[in-house]
Amino acid sequence: MNATITATARYLPDRVLTNFDLEKMVDTSDEWIRSRTGISERRLVAEGEATSDMCAEVVNRLLEKSGKQPEDIDLIIVATITPDMLVVATAAIVQDKVGATNAWGFDLTAACSGFLYGLETGSKLVESGQYKNVIVIGADAMSSIIDYTDRNTCVIFGDGAGGVLLEPTKSDGGVLDSMLFADGSGRDSLKVHAGGSLHPASKDTVENRMHYVQQDGKTVFKFAVKNMADVSEKILKKNGYTGQDLALFIPHQANLRIINAAASRCNLSDEQVLINIEKYGNTTAGTIPIGLDEAVETGRIKKDDLVLLSAFGGGFTWGSVLLRWTES
Ligand code: ACO
User: Fold this and answer.
1) Which CATH number fits domain 176-324: 3.30.70.260, 3.30.980.10, 3.40.50.880, 3.40.47.10?
2) Residue among 36, 42, 228 whose CB has most ligand 1 atoms within 8 A, to mutate
């Protein structure tokens, strides 16, 4: 028995932060940001709006689309690096907010690869036969950990959430295969240093701005270009496919140049690649499920299509998931 995605949904906050807004905040330019990253604007949560609020919107939209009730949900997995708080799990808060009284849930931390890690975990639990309605969400309120005086990071990230409902299918489609990796030796290249057990919050950690994302952009860039392209090519080959067989490639949206490198390695045309980075920037765990929902809504994915999802992120973490779409 396979697991398959039977509904998709996304939530983007209303507040827009454009490149021109950022020009007034740090020493940057719209031209630099667009040419180096492909980003024009990004969304930010409202004051007091947390990751769980975005996730609850996603779950409510999934329920509406699938015709399910909150009590039908068995499990909620939230991939995020911006939980509402360290304790309690965001998934538990979401469970309460949507009234999913029969669900358990947990958070999963794998930065921008989080949604793919969650999709693999959720699929395997569905395939076990024990769970029938599993929700996997990728959500991040990156604005809560971004230093808006640091031009190296503040131009890249945005807030947003997306998610899917996984159910069992008797067809041979659905989630076909995955290849997922981690290499923690890359942990210094992209991190939020303080607030955990290594450097608990203190006056010093706050004064040294250690609760914000710190990134060695060049190292992350090189890692991403090589590994997202490698894993995308490998999973296709492993399953006997080439880029020609793909209806759509949905890569993590971190930098247009990284996306183009992976697409070109798989010999994909522009029509085969989902790109929405110009509107939202990098929403970390949110980018792939947001892209997936946009693709379904605009008819870019149809029944029986082969779809490839690929990501890389802090850790390092990276991987791909291959899908055969089963919904019409
Ligand atoms: N505006 C203007 N100039 C800038 C900006 C900015 N926002 N940021 C950096 N610069 C300057 C640098 O200071 C440097 O100036 P210098 O030559 O005088 O020293 C120059 O631009 C070039 O800097 P580079 O770092 O070489 O620029 P690069 O082309 O590598 O682009 C970027 C930087 C966009 C960060 C790129 O390296 C990148 O995208 N890296 C990957 C980041 C990424 O994907 N992160 C997300 C990972 S996913 C996750 O898990 C969250």
Assistant:
1) 3.40.47.10
2) 36
